[in-house]
């Protein structure tokens, strides 16, 4: 079982989008039993709130539901509980390092660093552009799965 936690500031826009897009990709590849996938916030601002309507509406276009998801806070215990802890932007990584402590097991990554053009995920909180965020998230999640299959799963199941 590979455990993946996506992280952003509020856990209502970007990281839940990554959580549900990644779950969808993994399911379509028949790999859902190999993964535990979740998302969390570095800020307590939105804790307990449902996914932002911009993310919900965008994912609905692809038949993906986020029903039941509520924003939760990243805690120091998550460092031991997850294999991949993935921020959406560089500012998230700094907050994750503060909450999780030193990344001695190299578990902390920025999502688009798995792609050929490393960059931050576009932040829809400021732009209102959830299409751009979705494209970034989709590109990052495909690249992440490729990385995990190559580095972890091939050793276990292929
Ligand atoms: P997220 O978006 O980090 O992608 O969930 C945001 C949510 C809330 C705030 C900023 C970004 N905020 O400033 O409250």
Number of domains: 1
Radius of gyration over alpha carbons? 14 Å
**What share of residues is helical?**
40-55%
Looking at the overall shape, the CATH architecture is 3-Layer(aba) Sandwich
Q: Identify the bound ligands.
A: 4-nitrophenyl phosphate
Low-confidence stretches: none
How far is it from the N-terminal to the C-terminal residue, by CA?
A: 14 Å
Give the strand order, joined by hyphens, for the main sheet: 2-1-3-4
Q: Mean pLDDT across all residues, rounded? A: 96
Structural class: alpha/beta
Order of helices and strands: EHEHHEHEHH
Question: What is the assigned CATH homologous superfamily?
Answer: Response regulator
Query: How much of the polypeptide forms β-strand, as a percent range?
Result: 5-15%
Give the total of beta strands: 4
Task: Compute the number of helices.
Answer: 6
| Main beta sheet | 4 strands, parallel
CATH class: Alpha Beta
Tell me, briefly, the overall form: globular
CATH topology annotation: Rossmann fold
GO molecular function, one term: protein tyrosine phosphatase activity
Active site: 8, 14, 123
Protein name: protein-tyrosine-phosphatase
Pfam family, one: LMWPc
């Amino acid at each position: 079982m590979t455990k993946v936690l996506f992280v952003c500031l509020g856990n209502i826009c970007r990281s839940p989008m990554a959580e549900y897009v990644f779950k969808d990709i993994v399911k379509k590849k028949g790999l859902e039993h190999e993964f535990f996938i979740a998302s969390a916030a570095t800020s307590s601002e939105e804790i307990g709130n449902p996914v932002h309507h911009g993310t919900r509406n965008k994912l609905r276009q692809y038949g993906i539901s986020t029903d039941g998801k509520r924003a939760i806070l990243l805690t120091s215990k998550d460092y031991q509980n997850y294999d991949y802890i993935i921020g959406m932007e560089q500012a998230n990584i700094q907050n994750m390092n503060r909450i999780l402590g030193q990344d001695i097991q190299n578990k902390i990554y920025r999502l688009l660093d798995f792609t050929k053009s490393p960059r931050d995920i576009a932040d829809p909180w400021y732009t209102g552009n959830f299409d751009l965020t979705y494209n970034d998230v989709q590109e990052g999640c495909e690249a992440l799965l490729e990385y995990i299959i190559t580095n972890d799963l091939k050793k276990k199941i292929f």
